[in-house]
Amino acid sequence: MKSLVDNLVMPLVSLVMPGVDWTTIAFGQFLVGKFIGDLITFIIIAFVIFILIKITTRIGIK
Questions:
Q1: What is the pLDDT, as a whole number, of residue 54?
Q2: Which residues contact 7 (CB under 8 A, 6 or more apart)?
Q3: Largest Cα–Cα separation, the chain
Q4: What is the spatial distance between Cα 15 and Cα 54, in angstroms, rounded to a whole number?
Q5: What is the Cα–Cα distance from 58 to 62, expressed in whole angstroms?
Q6: What is the distance, to the nearest Å, from the Cα of residue 48 to the centroid of all Cα atoms in its chain?
Q7: Which residue range is the domain that position 18 belongs to?
C-alpha cells in the first residue's frame, strides 16, 4: 500500500504543488508532509480492509 501512495497518489499531489517537496513541509520539528503521506497510506489500507470485510460478510464467510 505504501508503494501505491508513494508512486501514484503523491505524484498527483506534486502536480498540485509544483516545485515543492511536500515531504519536507514542517512546522518547527513537526514533519507535516511525512505525516500527511502516512495518513493517506493509513486511509487507503483501512478502506481496503473495510471493503474486504464487507465482501466476506456479504458472501457469508465468518
A1: 92
A2: none
A3: 50
A4: 34
A5: 10
A6: 12
A7: 2-59
Q: H helices of 1-62, where?
A: 2-4, 10-16, 32-59
Which pLDDT score, from 0 to 100, does residue 39 have?
86
Q: Is 17 strand, coil or helix? A: coil
Cβ atoms 1, 48 nearer than 8 A: yes
| pLDDT score for 62 | 63
Residue positions counted in the chain:
62
Overall domain count for the chain: 1
DSSP 26: E
Tens digits of residue pLDDT in 29-59: 887 888 887 888 888 889 988 999 999 988 8
| Residue 1 predicted with pLDDT over 70 | no
**23 in Cβ contact with 34 (< 8 Å):** yes
